[in-house]
């Protein structure tokens, strides 16, 4: 009994001591955790992902796609993937559909002391001719070098998917600083920023690289992997280790890396073959630009006033690009081939004379096949080889004129005659009524 009392005394006498010790130690323990966390985050790579546009600023809208939604879904997928890597802290500039100034986005990156700011976008062009993927970076110092090194990896991955490489570009405003606000503001804070234009929403060549569900996710994972490769990260969860990956280290330039504002130096083209049955013209071209890569070529049939669609400029080992275009039907043809560099600078070839080509259009060819099965060979031969070289175009299609004449007669028969008949009946009716009124008046 006495022993029990002593035990209790010890128990309750010691308890306050432990409680006091606990209270004293607790803040110490918390502080230690905070410090540990801070040192981890201080060593961690900080990446800020900026879903382009948002709120009232929808960005590009085309064919059911809204850029701000696509960039947001891509950014979410990118963050999720990037957080699977060790030693990285990832932030989004916006986590809902809100308006945000470009300066605000850059200021946020500054606030969290970002190592890299990536602004995600989807592209669209005025004439819907451009296609492919590109990165925009600062034209200055370390931000240029880091931006370029990251973009090399990013574009390597995007083009591996089949997208056309539009290159890594800088752009300046009239004051000679970076044109894009988010890059300009970030560069002012010495934070490298890259605008990634994943693909074009409005062009047939990029059609298979965009949808609502698969591609935004896919781009997000791809962008995250490019970041992991650039910083040499590893992920136990994903079972990948990029810490030994060697990639290019661009030297920090001392001067401004200005965009190319001159067109290609020259563009030469020649016609190699003309198919008179189909109107197809085959030829080759080569172009040269000492400042930037040639990106597209295109063809004009009106002496360079307007050009048709754009094609990839991918020269063979001799530096030649082969082209194939269809000449306008039944017109004297001369064409101009043009080459465009990465910045849209355009150089034209000399005029190439082809002469007048007369060929069957696809639908005429189909019609013709039907005729062949019904009519005699002579008749078909005549219509297939009309000698129209010096005859004005409007006189070249007698069968069409015959057709429209018979349509007119039919139209008169179907609509004109009943209208005339109704008119005659109506006139009789009115005359009768007038006569009746007059008689009534007399009466
Ligand atoms: Zn955009």
Topology readout:
Layout: H1 2-43, E1 45-51, E2 61-62, E3 65-66, H2 67-82, E4 88-92, H3 102-111, E5 116-123, E6 133-136, H4 141-160, E7 165-169, H5 181-188, E8 193-200, H6 214-231, E9 234-235, E10 240-241, E11 266-275, E12 280-288, E13 294-300, E14 311-312, E15 321-326, E16 331-341, E17 346-348, E18 352-357, H7 362-374, H8 377-384, H9 398-442
Parallel strand pairs: 1-4, 1-5, 5-8, 6-7
Antiparallel strand pairs: 2-3, 6-8, 9-10, 11-12, 12-15, 13-14, 13-16, 16-17, 16-18
Helix pairs in contact: 2-6, 3-5, 4-6
Bound molecules: zinc ion.
Which descriptors would you attach to this protein?
six-stranded mixed β-sheet, about 450 residues, Aminopeptidase, 18 strands, alpha+beta, binds zinc ion, single chain, Immunoglobulin-like
